[in-house]
Amino acid sequence: MSNFAQSISDGFLNFAPHVNALGLKFVAMGDDWAELALPYAAHLVAYPADNETDGIIASGAIFSLMDTVGGMAVIAKQRRLLHQATLDLRLDYLRPAEPGKTVTGHADVVKITRSVAFVSGFAHDGNPEHPLARMAATYMFTKGARA
Amino acid sequence: MSFVRLSTLLRDGPKEGPISALPYAQTLGLRYIKTDAGITIHMPFSDALIGAPKRLHGGTIAGLLEIASIAQVIHALGDDAAATTLKPVNVTVDYLRGGASEDSYAAAIITRIGRRIANIRAEAWQADRTRLIACAHMNVMIARRDAASAG
After folding, report:
1. pLDDT per residue over A3-46, tens digit each?
2. What is residue B134's three-state secondary structure?
3. How many angstroms away from the CA of A111 is the closest CA of chain B?
């Protein structure tokens, strides 16, 4: 892991309590993209299975994963931590995540302006060619940015 | 993916209480409140909801809005809810203000509910009901049990 990725992993992930509550793990980061993993856990289930055991991970938990990884992709592109806020995020749930499998979230920065970053992403549970969700989001720089 | 326990809770349970039927709702600490308009969801503040310092993680607000939307659909389905399966199709969340370190609430309005799709709008707020922190638009697929195999 590069020093920059390490500092992001330490600063951005480990000090966000909700990120820890979900169990998000750093996977990888490039010049304008990032990847995080959400290991399957019983406390993340929202759509209970008929047998009440193998439930499907909450779409809300996948939303958190994608919001976080999208923000990380913006940091990767900027090469520094700026004050930023999610302006909006749309998630299409293409199919349910398979119970028991780790969900990986991948986000790419499509375009960055002085005040807004446009990000697209997807989530999969093993095969990136077979995504389970698609994301489109915008992030706003809230300090030191001009319209 | 049935919501038998949740629909029973929302229909027959006390006027308010924890959403014990959904593990993810318990993770967020969500509670339901029955109102004249349907169901309001309450997310008491806790440190585990924090993202950036002193701010709620955006994902917790999205989760709150989604559960409020699902709960309102279950409320609208009434006695039919136990015989249906709900699947989220998509959700769009607009973040309007940062979520402060305090209790949050969300309630949803069903724009249209048909045989197969419910179109829902949800709002989230904190101390002041008129100062929204986020709003959402969600589409949910409704699969009737008897017709589930027909898609």
Report:
1. 777 777 777 777 789 998 999 999 999 999 999 999 999 889 87
2. strand
3. 19
8 A C-beta contact, residue A114 and residue A146: yes
Cβ distance A89 to B50 less than 8 Å, yes or no, reads: no
Residue with the two structure tokens 């406390």? A43
Whether A46 and B60 lie within 8 Å, measured CB to CB: no
Nearest to B84 by CA among B63, B64, B70: B70
Confidence of residue A146 (pLDDT cuts 50, 70, 90): low
Nearest to A112 by CA among A138, A83, A136: A138
Which residue bears the tokens 């793990």? Answer: A25
Q: Determine whether the interchain pair A64/B58 forms a contact, defined as Cβ–Cβ distance below 8 Å.
A: yes
ipTM of this complex prediction, to 2 decimal places: 0.87
Tokens read off for A67 = 């919001």
Counting every residue written for chain A, the total comes to: 147
Residue B84, CA distances (Å) to A23, A54, A136, B56, B143 in order: 31, 18, 29, 33, 5
The residue ranges of chain B whose pLDDT is under 70 are: 1-2, 146-151
